[in-house]
Here is the input.
Amino acid sequence: MLQESQTGNIAEVEKNLSKPLTLSVCIPAFNESSNVIELIKRVSLEELNGAVIIEFLVDISGSSDNSEFALKELSEDIPILQVVNVGKRDGLNNALDRLILLAKGELIARIDGDVSIQKGTLASLIREFESERVGIVGPRVKTTKAADGLMNLVMNGEYALHHYISKISPKTTNLQIFRNVHVGIPSGFEVDDILIQQQIEAKGYCSKYVENGTIWVTPPISFNQLFKQRIRCISQQRHYSKLSGRLSPTQSPINSIHSLLKGILSREENAWGMFFFAIFELFSRLYVTAKESLMGHKDFTTWDQVKGTKEVKWEEGES
Here is the structure.
């Protein structure tokens, strides 16, 4: 027979197991008031099944649009909304650092201000934390239509390629949910999502790519804009690898080649787009390598915005 103290302990354990996790939603945003307002409204209505949102934290530092006024007005309907503004634009990493430091939830959802989320995605991601081994999760990223013809083909190919890479080496970006285990972004680094994931893994947790969850991003609308974006991202990745001594999932040639072949052999509908994007990416990487060998590392801030990528359109079925 179980003694009274033992049954009490079992009841306490069962209570803790059924208790929902607390979630802090952190959104860094720069001049993105219209989408951030819509994002918060939709996320606040999501059924998370296993977590409860205790706060929305939004950093709008340096924004010159109506973000502060609009968010303060929204906080009258959503009182758990808190706005952070240090008065100057000091970069995505600093904004994320501030938000992570303020977050009180057991889980932190880092959501970029320029994404839209498919309904049910947050619940799918949170469900993964039923395993104590899981420390950080991310969904599949898809692109809205950029333009007609080759540009649209290449943009779909980029995200299809990243999908296959993430199935090999989990890559979380744009939307990450992770355990609040005191991570931060050291000064001198420029790639926030990789660093967060690396620190979570360093604490003994694993990363999980959840392909049945989806977020949508707006891609560049021309090859000139795509080239500008890729140069910035590649430069940041190279800087990260030099300082950390490791490659990001999309930097690995083995990951890229394996994923490209997998897409082609499996008759992926975006296989030709994957092929053309791989050529474009190779050219971009050679360009950055040559430029940095001549000029040294250039500090491309992650807050440089590419025209068109901040114009988010929400559709039915998205959060």
In short: The longest strand covers residues 206-217. The two ends are 50 Å apart (CA to CA). The CA atoms of residues 40 and 218 lie 18 Å apart. Strands lie at 21-28, 51-59, 81-84, 107-111, 115-117, 134-143, 175-179, 206-217.
